[in-house]
Fold:
Amino acid sequence: MQSPLKRLLLPTVVLLLGVLHSAQAQQPLNTGNFSGYFEANGQYYQTDSAIGATEVKEKWLNNGFMGLSYNYGNLSAGIRYESYLNALQGFDKNYKGSGIVNRYVTYSNEKLTVTAGNFYEQFGSGLVFRTYWEPNLGLDNSMDGLRAVFSPRSGITVKGIIGRQRDFFTFGDGIVRGVDGEIQFNDVFSALAASKLRIGLGGSFVSKYQKDNDETYILPENVGAYAGRISLRYGKVAFDAEYASKINDPSQSNNYQYNTGEALFTNLTYTKKGLGIRVSAKRVNNMDYRSDRTVTGTRLQINYLPAVNRQQTYRLATLYPYATQPLGEMGGSAEIYYTFKPKSKLGGEYGTTIMLNYAAVNDIERKNPDDTLGYDSDFFAIGKDRYYQEVTFELTKKISKKSKFILSYLYQIYDRNKLEGKIAEKQVSSHLGVLEYTYKLSSSNSLRFDFEHLYTEQDKGNWAMALVEFTMAPNWSLAVFDEWNYGNDDSELRIHYFNGSVNYMSGGTRLSVGWARQRAGLLCVGGVCRFVPASNGIAVTISSRF
Structure:
């Protein structure tokens, strides 16, 4: 039996061709424009018992997708085809097969935008609703249904959505409905137009419906969540805050407890030339919100809970990445960067920039726990368990017209037991030093070096990493690096993880061929993670935008 998405293939194609034919018939000299994108990621897998890379029967695994869109006047339409034959390791096994997973038609004018089909949308910061596509995580919670955005005048926006969420090659059971409104007072009221204080208010309501078929519990079939937000701007200072609440929502992810949920996210910034200060804080309590109460992982998530910690990009810094804990966390971060002016004592010839960041995330306090009714939790009470902590210092310095370096230090505390379910595992404390150096050989050629060292007495011990990258703009780049777990207590596991790649770029097309010995670990984007198993083999990626 074909999935609902596949059954829509023929009418989708017919609709797109009809739109194109109509446009050509009415305006033969202006037929709109096509655009698209394509990407294929394949890997040949080899068994490597030393790193735990198990046998892959197919030997070659592949993820790929292609999207096409057409725009003519106020109309636009598009489709996306995806293929997993079979999916790369680390992706959910439900990604298996091929088919059209995204198709839409949108009409838009100055005041109204309406979409039928698949769409992505976000209310506020996403605490009660956000749909998005992140192919590197295997995450796509797009809506399939109807979406309308109405702006009756400048400064007022109202959104409405209804539909079901994508679940691999089919849809989730639940129906999601929502409305969001926002007003920018300075744009609406002429008396405030010249005010230095700019004020914005917004509010959202989202509800999901799923039939109760459970024989053990009496489950709410309609679960509502609402949120309110405020945005203030005055000169160089900006403040944003959003609070969300959700009614009791027993599900597989919270072990069918009847707690209500809530979340608060705040962000305060001050910026001027050469100086930036940011302070963020959040509290999350039982805010796992899905259109199907029986699923876990990253499937069918209705909302998004932003992370307060920095998204680390250096290789060894990703050994211990933090994933947002939707069932309960309290965290905060503060960051400051300052640039010493060129020609000053500390700035030198070209100036010097320093950055200092601190972030910490704890569990929430839980009192009077009950397996079904849940628990009590004081809003301002911080739990005793520290999930994650980091201190980051970064110094960026241009030495000459041809060279610059970045010197970084990162201190992390990471609770493997709580965050990865590693029973009786020790909390990891690590120190990481990084030196990144770039030298321009000519106007088009450059060398980049990256040296990293991580020190820890827990987990697998110390690591070292060295990378060399040669870029010949605008077409070629070559990179080789090695991660070495030289401090492992087991001498047989003091393994080198070699990686080499060649990349070619021309216009919107990129081809990458490489061989890698990949360590097992978490891949995280924006506080959302997936596990990547150890692997050994040749990887090929080709992508293009046209």
Remarks:
- The mean pLDDT is 93.
- The radius of gyration is 25 Å.
